[in-house]
Amino acid sequence: MSAPRSFQEIILRLQTYWGSKGCAVLQPYDMEVGAGTFHPATTLRSLGSRPWAAAYVQPSRRPTDGRYGENPNRLQHYYQYQVLIKPSPPDLQALYLGSLEAIGIDMGLHDIRFVEDDWESPTLGAWGLGWEVWCDGMEVSQFTYFQQVGGHDCKPVSGELTYGLERLAMYVLGVDHVMDMPYNDPDSPIALTYGDVFRQTEQEYSRWNFDQADTDMLLQHFKDAEAECDRILTASPQDKAGRTIVMAHPAYDQCIKASHLFNLMDARGVISVTERQAYIGRVRALAKRCADAFVTTEAGASA
Amino acid sequence: MPDLLLELFSEEIPARMQGRAREDLKKLVTDGLVEAGLTYAAAGVFSTPRRLVLTIEGLMAESPTTREERKGPKADAPEQALAGFLRGIGITDAGPVMALAGQPHGSHIHAGGVVVEVRDDKKGQVLFAKVTKPGRPAADIVAEVVERTIRTFPWPKSMRWGSGQLRWVRPLHSILCLLTTEAGADVVPVTVDHLNAGNTTEGHRFLAPARFAVSGFDDYAAKLKRAFVVLDSAEREAAIWHDATTGAFASGLEVVPDAGLLTEVAGLVEWPVVLMGAIGEEFLGLPPEVLQTSMKEHQKFFSVRNPKTGRIERFITVANRTTADDGATILKGNLKVLSARLSDARFFWENDLRTVANGGLEGMAAGLANVTFHNKLGSQAERITRIAALARELAPLVGADADQAELAARVAKADLQSAMVGEFPELQGLMGSYYARAQGLPDAVADACQQHYSPLGPSDEVPSQPVSVAVALADKLDTLTGFWAIDEKPTGSKDPYALRRAALGVIRLVLGNGLRLPLARFGDDLLAFFHDRLKVFLRDQGVRHDVIDACLAMPGNDDLTLLVKRARALQDFLGTEDGANLLQGFRRANNILTQAEKADGVEYSFGADVKYAETDEERALFAALDGAEAAIAPAMKTEDFGAAMAALAGLRAPIDAFFTAVQVNSDKQVIRRNRLNLLHRIRAACAPVADLSRLGSE
Fold it and tell me: Cβ distance B262 to B236 under 8 Å?
């Protein structure tokens, strides 16, 4: 397998690889999320017994990680590549290693390790067991067998793979600073680096996240999202025409919003240590109720 | 006798769980076999990241046949009375058994594997059953025990996978289970959910991934080695350590020993390959502890030190494979990750040094005003102000300069706000000492930054530098008085704020430095807590608890140094023959006196007069008491408990002689009163030393 030459080539190869292994190649969720796990294609679809296989890129935001585009490895906006297969196939480790080969990592020269890393998301009420995958001492992916999501046992168990795309690509391409990484092919008529695309936005969002975001407004939006989520889930499952339509996804959108608003308030430094747990608990309560609703729907049912 | 080989092959088992898992596997399987009647000669267990392996040598081929005799009811008992007996031995038809009634002694019938016999007894004819339980083949028993072991294995955390219900630490892929004899190897028919045991396994994930069959343990271990798997973790550890130290030595360097890391790394690889790399020149200025912590925590690297300079200059990483380029790519990758990590560390270090250069440690500490220590006890900054005031106050008691003690307390926790401690919390204190020196603060202050958390446990070293002692004491006393004030005391096993540890810290600081620090000022309840912890501490050191009680009953018991001095002297004293006998004499005197005082309703403490003495023994006791009292008083003034107790020891013979020769309860009231008053003098002589009435009869 030839070496990829750009960030986008790595993404395209992952898409092709997982598509060829039978995953539905989905598009990113159109909301601000902290990680690919928040995409309903993972969070909600890991519930219930219907088989599922999806792969997608998810733009992710972690406001506290902003470094004004100066840090070689840290970004407040970055990309994750996410794979979720339910039930987890017995050869998931081999499938995963195949994906590394697909992006040009020569298994004969590198040292790949599965190092214990238990995953827990207090905001999603979710946990699983698995590993961080190391390539020559570098963490290139998270590999998790979901055990519980939204307070519900996962039956069957989903296998989740998450690749931190920038870090993985920097390693594969041999780049030291993320902003120097070729975004498209360096020989393109208009060659663009990651910095050409994102340096300015990193600066702008870092300033807004840390200094400018209106905290009163954020708090109000948090409360609004919480209230709307509650309202949607409290509504009768029967619509005006008498159809049964449980609105799990619209409710879950509000949960995602609340989670991101919490992250923004956190970056603004207005959440104290004691309040932190309380906010996380409020988001978790929403996530659990959304999960409770989803498992009553066709897509989330257990056989 | 067959040998057993069991391999449970799974996805990667966390390194930290492997040691315990080996022991559990051995115990569960061997206990299960023995319980079922199968004994064995020897058992061994092994683990790699992907397999748990048990081998048992000299297992019995089948469990022994057991014969048991059961006594039943009388032969002529009604059918109802026979029912229970027959059910127990598996007989359904009562007819033939009942027909035994009246038959000659020894008549019997066969039913299945059971013989029922009738015997003449004193009270008539009684039924006996001889039950034979045939032995079972080892394979049947092994299959049961292995299945039960897998289903009940006590992993600290286990999981399900796919659509199955089985739980294991990570997905379990195959079971190899063989019983091997000279005649050959047989697969034991173990079935656990969708898994059926076989005779095959896999080699190294990358170097020899094919499945292969084995015929027994020796064949298994040999084939594994050819397939790039070192089965025994001890062998992997030894190989890693050997290659690491040899490689370092060849470069004139030494590996910093770390047994925990060695075990962990050996649990991450099946085919260890040691690689050594150099740390970039630009990072060598970082404190060695920072390099070591960063490399260990993030990368699981060993540190390699230059013995001449003490600097850490290289690292050792352990790969899980050989490569065509002799590890060059792997080393390059690891170095790159390390450089990124150390760049972060260097950024933190330089940032922190800049903060200190600009505003000193006090400037660094400014942010602690916004950090809540506890919502009822205010911020860290408020706490530091209290500690500083207390450290200043304690300074003269511990021989520290008051200004230095206060300054040290003000800056000792500043590093909690440093970038480096934010990243590596385990470096708290140590970083403070580096930054204090960078700021040009006195060594005593810098050392206090590092040492004021000590002692952290019963075996942690106790600080001895006065400034460190003052701050360490103030820190712990503030914690204790604070949580006492808001009534958050430890209860039972719950001690979320580690207050027992803080109290033990105070105790060890006081005793270790011989401090005279009256603790009563912190309140009776807290003093009682100190006394509780002191009892536990001294009991661990072999001091009898009644000895501690006898000393706790004395005035000045909030001075722990005095208290312990007294207790140790008393314990030594009681260990001597004189001491033990004196205690008997004291008890006798005390009992007689106490009874008399109770009966008479008076206190006999008016002073005995030698002129009423009737016997030589009485007069001798008077003289001995005069001598002892004269010695005890000055000894007590200088807290020389040894001398005081030696003086008491001199009373032993006169007291024994007195009780042998003299009847206290004389008919003459004057004599009796005088003798009781004399007994009072014995009690009074002992009183300043310790409350001997609290001693048990140990």
Answer: no
User: B374 touching A, CB under 8 A?
Assistant: no
Q: How wide is the angle at C-alpha B115 spanned by C-alphas B111 and B117, nearest 5°? A: 120
Asked if B171 and A107 come within 8 Å (Cβ–Cβ), the reply is no
Give the three-class secondary structure for B44: strand
- In angstroms, the CA A287 to CA A55 distance is 22
Taking an 8 Å cut-off on Cβ atoms, the answer to whether A136 and B329 are in contact is yes
Q: Does B516 touch chain A (CB under 8 A)?
A: no
Chain-wide mean pLDDT for chain A? 95
Burial of B466 (0-12, 13-18, 19+ CB in 10 A): buried
The closest of B609, B633, B634, B640 to B687, measured between CA atoms, is B633
A269: left (phi over 0), alpha (psi -120 to 50) or beta: left
Listing DSSP states for B420-448 in one string gives HHHH-GGGTTHHHHHHHHHTT--HHHHHH
The C-alpha angle with vertex B463 and arms to B457 and B466, in degrees rounded to 5, equals 145
Which residues of chain A are within 8 Å of residue B206 when distances are taken between CB atoms?
Answer: 107-108, 112
Comparing CA positions, the residue from B284, B282, B294 lying closest to residue B420 is B294
Residue A81 CA to residue A100 CA, distance in Å, equals: 12
Q: Of B194, B224, B231, B187, nearest to B209 (Cα)?
A: B224
Nearest chain B Cα distance for residue A188, angstroms: 28
Q: Is the alpha carbon torsion for B53, B56, B61, B63 positive or negative?
A: negative
Taking the CA of residue A155 and the nearest CA in chain B, the distance in Å comes to 7
3-state secondary structure of B562: helix
| Nearest Cβ partner for A274 among B49, B160, B375 | B375
In a mutational test of the A interface, the residue from B9, B10, B12, B195 whose CB has the highest number of chain A CBs within 10 Å is: B12
Q: What ranges in chain A are assigned the alpha helix state H?
A: 7-20, 40-43, 92-102, 165-173, 194-207, 215-234, 248-267, 273-294
- What is the percent of chain B where pLDDT is above 90? 66
- Percentage of chain B surpassing pLDDT 70? 100
Dump pLDDT digits (tens) for A246-261: 999 999 999 999 999 9
Specify whether the CB–CB gap between A194 and A177 falls below 8 A: no
Q: What is the 3-state secondary structure (H, E, C) of B594-614?
A: HHHHHHHCCCCCCCCCHHHCC
Residues of chain B neighbouring A272 (CB-CB closer than 8 A): 372
A137 and B337 in contact by Cβ < 8 A? yes
Residue of B nearest to A140 (CA): B337
Interchain contact, B333 vs A137, CB within 8 Å = yes
pTM reported for the whole predicted model: 0.80
- What's the pLDDT tens digit per position in B588-634? 889 889 988 888 888 888 778 888 888 899 999 999 999 999 999 99
Nearest to B206 among A73, A107, A128 (CB): A107
Structure ipTM: 0.94
First to last CA, chain A: 42
Q: How far apart are CA B509 and CA B506, in angstroms?
A: 5
